[in-house]
Amino acid sequence: MKTLNKNIRREFSHSLPRFLSVTALLTLGVFVLIGLNVTGSNMRQTAEARYHQENLADAQVTTPLNLNQGDRRTITNLKHVAKAEFGNSTDVLLKNSNHALRIESLPQTISKTTLVSGKQPQNAGEIVLNNRLKGQYQIGDQIHLATAKTAGTYNLKQKTYRISGFVKSTEFIKTDNIGNTSAGSGQLYGFGFVKAGAFKANTQNLARLTFNNVSGQAYSAEYEDQITKNVDALQPVLNRRNHQRIQALNKTLTTQITTGTADVQAGRQQVQTAQGQLDTLKQQLGSQGAPAQLAQLNAQQAQIDGQRTQLNRAQTQIDTAKATKGQLADVNLLIQSRNDFNDGYNQFGEDSQRIDALGKSFPILFFLIAILVSFTTMQRMVEEKRIEMGTLRALGYTKGEVMREVLLYSAGTAVLGTVFGSGLGLVLLPKVIFQAYAANFDFTQVQLAWHPWLIVLSLVIALASTALAAWLAARAALKEITAQLMLPKPPSSGSRIFLERIGFIWHHLSFSKKVTARNLFRYKSRMFMTIVGIAGATAILITGFGIRDSLNGIIDHQFKEIVHYDAIAVYNNKATDTQVKRVTDFITNDPHVKKDATAAFSQVYTTNGNTKENIQVLVPKNTATLKNYIELQDSKTNAKLSLNSQGAIISEKLAKTHHVQKGDYLTVHLADGTTRRVKIKAITKMYVGHYLYMNASYYQQVFHQAPSYNAQLITLTSHGQAQVNQFAADFSRLNASVQVVQAAESKRTVTKILSNLNNLVIVIILSASLLSFVVLYTLTNVNVSERMRELSTLKVLGFYPKEVLMYIYRETNILTGVGIATGLAAGWGFHAYIMSVLPPENTMTAPGVTWANLLISIILTILFSLIVMFMMNRKIQSVDMLEALKSVD
Amino acid sequence: MTNFISVTNMTKTYGAGENAVTANKDISFDIQKGELTIILGASGAGKSTLLNILGGMDQLTAGQVVVNGTDLGQLDNRALTTYRRQQIGFVFQFYNLVPNLTALENVELASEIVNDALDPQKVLTEVGLGSRSQNFPAQLSGGEQQRVAIARAMAKNPDLLLADEPTGALDYHTGKSILQLFQDFVRQSGKNVIIVTHNSMIRPMADHVIEIFDGQVKTDTRNDQPTPVADLEW
Ligand SMILES: Nc1ncnc2c1ncn2[C@@H]1O[C@H](COP(=O)(O)OP(=O)(O)O)[C@@H](O)[C@H]1O
Ligand SMILES: [Mg+2]
Fold first, then answer.
1. Residue with the nearest Cα to atom 3 of ligand 1?
2. C or N: which end of chain B has fewer Cβ atoms within 10 Å?
């Protein structure tokens, strides 16, 4: 037994390269399988811990009007609401800047903040800012705020606050693009919290809710489904309440307007009469009146003038009331789930699910190759050991004892591979991948976890591809009687290959080509493995590189071919005439605006599982000039499209996700959840964003009202980010401005995804490179080891080193070539698949793989095969030809 | 007549220090052109070592070996390969055919790499396998495989044909017919053949017998009237 163990130990060290290469293969397979499958889940776990700690709201209710007591009662009494906390939120500017800040009252129980440094505000004069602003401010600094609109309402009591500390909040987990705002450049620069008492009375406009019927982790189907159900059920309740309060308001406003108008009219009458009397008096008196009389008249005149000013002021109030009344239709009371009120929550979830999607595809390919190659390698090993096993059997060792060596060897690779792979996959990969996310989200470290089932699964697969392979081969071998086993396995009888039957070709082949051809087909399984291995690795390389190309391609296509505007400036066209005029004047006079076109802009949404997909609805006032801003072209034929009254033109991805075609109807929801059916007239090419384009008459048909022209499509003289931001900031100061929708927004979203995936892509490319290298090494190593005798014969015959190498490598090169070619095709398909799951829901996949990508992938694979060739050459040349030819085997 | 091969005080030592094994000690002998030489000795005597050095497959440690004007001690690895390629044919106890090539292709494997090769099919016919040229090694008997190996060595048209225990794995009759091939080759081509064997019964067939014992030359005898293989008995 001792000797047997010694023999086993020797086998391990004797064939160490093979042992290591199979271990490396399995390590890679397990690494990618575990790593890509745990990272998404670890990320969600990391987030959930913070959400739980801060008690992130399950839903929020928001409204453009302040909440009154009745509203609050309705919200508190909503079904399944465990707790409702009311608060204030307002967007302001940092004084003398375009930087927008969101200031909220500090939540006490729901969506609590996490203090990073300093103290929470102790009195109404203190504020805590978000942690990212730490660089700009210090505790104790004063911060000066200003209204977002030039003469807008200001909900806070003070304009200056003392910074008492810095906080984090899971309602703002993105580190840039914190959120959209109607203030400043359109993007929040930061956020802060003050005590509730720092807000003026009756300015609460926000309710944070927790539900008592939800369970499960954030992002789990269990949790998200229930929330969606709750929100869908509660919105109609809020709609009813909203209707009530609007009616009440409407009534109050109407009375105010009527009585006000009557009062003003009466007043004017009085003033006019008084003025008439005064004028008569003035005339009668002429210029010779006594000074006392004159002074009296002047005093009377001043009084009348004062009354006039008062009347004008009253008139303005009436006008504002009228405008307000006109806008009441737009007032809503919305309940939103985390995915909708918290952009960061949604994106973090989607990012983590993106990794899940990769985890479901890449590892399969990795592991498939690792399994195939390990399996063959192990079976070959057993075949090499036939004689030894036969000798041991003849000496009286049991089958089990004889098998022990190969089983220990193969199981050893499986266990080691699983240990290394799991270690790297559980710790290294999540950390490396998360590093990219840590830059864009407010989480510093990813929480690691054990995921024992994945480890067990990996071990089972690894054992199946090594120990099982070895056991099967050994069992088959040991079934033969021992005597036979001792003889060398009858030489695998050479056989004619198909090519030989085509005499025409065969006879024209040089001798070395014939040999190559025959050898290729002699080792069919290895031929197959090599092709699959190289093809797989090449395909992964192509896909890895392709992710970047395609995401960049999306942006390129979108802005070169389709979108030619820089921004949509949305304003309140129902504001008072003066305010509206200021907006139109501003756009006309801004020297940076190159051209603009009027349109009606609104948003609707469709549902896709638990997420709401926002759709921008655009109705151009002049359908003919639309093409200067957006080129509508058929998604299939590229034919130019124009709007008419027969239906809407919808963007390609929207049609795709809802499986609708030309002539079908698409159901969309308004903000309050009510639905409309839109007939699809055509489908337009669009890479990012969901859009509905229609003309005024079709809009009228769908929405039962004429479009409200509240937006200008803007093309600026230069399209740089700084200029678009400046335009947005200037525009946002106007009282009637609502929002600036930047076209580059979609560019940023896609770029962000790309940068978040960066580390992951690098890991995939490196792993694929290693895989390609190890596969080539393992298979060539088996090939060379098995054919040492043949190679030695060639040496004895006087083949030069290069000729000996080429004798084997002519085959390997052909297989590598075929592998690469197959890999190009496979990579094309695999890339297409990955790009169908990777981009966000509202983004098309940019077609194709670039030539540069194909070239790099090919060159890399060739480079690896060259490196392996050099390593193998050393092995081949250093073999002792006499030693190899001495023995029978 | 000048010596075709001349070995002078040749020593071959494997390894170094404590583990050093001297397989050939101070060996000297001459072989003339056109001889059939037999190197005879017990197992472990150092015959293969000697043959390998003559065949340019191993470097000697000391002394001088000149074959057909080439001083083997002066050659580097590459030059030794060229020497093997151009001048040597080698036959082993185990035939070392490439299993995936037909008999003819195995012969072509050798003829491909030299300039003045013989026609492979003709050589196969000469060794009596003309009709089996399309068979794979697995379809041939041991003796037939050895014939292919000999044909492969002969097809290179070498100046020197070396055979290390060529009949070791064969039965009596088959072995005899193989030896016949070597004798015929020497007589017909006038080239040299050296056969290594531990079987002293075949010594009468040779022109020259060198007996090795414990790495040294024990006897060096010439035989003016070699017996035809057909008349040998053992
Ligand atoms: N590569 C080698 N390394 C070490 N010792 C060797 C080597 N080859 C042969 N020997 C030793 O040299 C001696 C002669 O071997 P060899 O020439 O093969 O004998 P023979 O062919 O006469 O049986 C033996 O003792 C053998 O162990
Ligand atoms: Mg020997």
1. B14
2. N
Give A397's Cβ-side CA count (13 Å radius): 20
A403 and A312 together in one domain: no
**Which one of A507, A793, A885 would you mutate to disrupt binding with B, by most B Cβ within 10 Å of its Cβ?**
A793
Yes or no, beta carbons of B90 and A796 under 8 Å apart: yes
The CA distance from B87 to the nearest CA of chain A, in Å, is 9
* Contact between residue A481 and residue A392 where contact means Cβ atoms under 8 Å apart: no
Q: Are residues A827 and A720 in the same domain?
A: no
Per DSSP, A177 falls in state S
Cα(A411)–Cα(A868) distance, integer angstroms: 26
Inter-chain touch B82–A798, beta carbons under 8 Å: yes
**Residues within 6 Å of ligand 1 by CB:** B 14-15, 21, 23, 41, 43-49
Task: Write the single-letter amino acid at A516.
Answer: T
Asked if residue A721 and residue A585 are part of one domain, the reply reads yes
A57 is a domain residue = no
Contact at 8 Å (CB) between A533 and A369? Answer: yes
Domain shared by A648 and A679, yes or no = yes
Of B57, B99, B137, which has the smallest distance from its Cβ to A796's Cβ?
A: B57
Choose the mutation target among A524, A797, A879 for the interface with B, i.e. most B CBs under 10 Å.
A797
Two structure tokens written together for A291: 């000074």
The span from the CA of A806 to the CA of A789, in Å, is: 16
pLDDT at B22 over 80: yes
Contact A29, A363 (CB under 8 A): yes
Confidence check: pLDDT of A562 > 50: yes
B211 has which bridge partners? B40, B219
Q: Chain A residues with CB inside 8 Å of B23's CB? A: none
d(CA A482, CA A391): 8
Residues A803, A809, A814, CA angle at the centre, nearest 5°? 135
Query: What share of chain B in percent tops pLDDT 70?
Result: 100
Chains A and B: how many Cβ contacts under 8 Å?
A: 83
**How far is ligand 2, taken at its centre, from the CA of residue A797, in Å?**
19
Mean pLDDT of A309-333: 83
Cross-chain Cβ contact B82/A888 below 8 Å: no
CB contact (8 A) between residue B138 and residue A492: yes
Neighbouring C-beta atoms of residue A511, cutoff 10 Å: 15
Residue B137 has its nearest CB partner, among A491, A522, A796, at: A491
Structure tokens at A719: 């399209």
Query: Model confidence over B218-227: pLDDT tens digits?
Result: 999 998 888 8
How far away is chain A from the Cα of B3, in angstroms, using its nearest Cα? 24
Handedness of CA B197, B200, B204, B208 (dihedral sign): positive
Give the per-residue pLDDT at B200: 87
Question: Which of A492, A795, A796 faces B99 most closely, judged by CB atoms?
Answer: A492
**Could you tell me the domains of chain B?**
3-14+21-226 (3.40.50.300)
Q: Which of A490, A795, A797 sits opposite B110 (nearest CB)?
A: A797
The closest-lying atom of ligand 1 relative to the alpha carbon of residue B22 is 12
- Residue numbers of the domain that contains A270: 249-328
pLDDT at A889 over 50: no
**What is the separation, in whole angstroms, between the first and last Cα of chain B?**
34
A519 Cβ under 8 Å from any chain B Cβ: yes
The strands making up A206-211's β-sheet, listed across from edge to edge, are A81-87, A206-211, A59-62, A334-337
Distance of CA A77 to the CA centre of its chain: 36
CA distance A361 to A357: 7
CB within 8 Å of A430: residues ≥ 6 apart: A35, A38, A39, A42, A43, A446, A448
Q: How far is CA B181 from CA A101, A331, A720, B111, B117, in A?
A: 102, 110, 91, 19, 19
Protein residue with least CA distance to atom 14, ligand 1? B46
Of A509-513, A634-638, B185-189, give the lowest mean pLDDT range.
A509-513
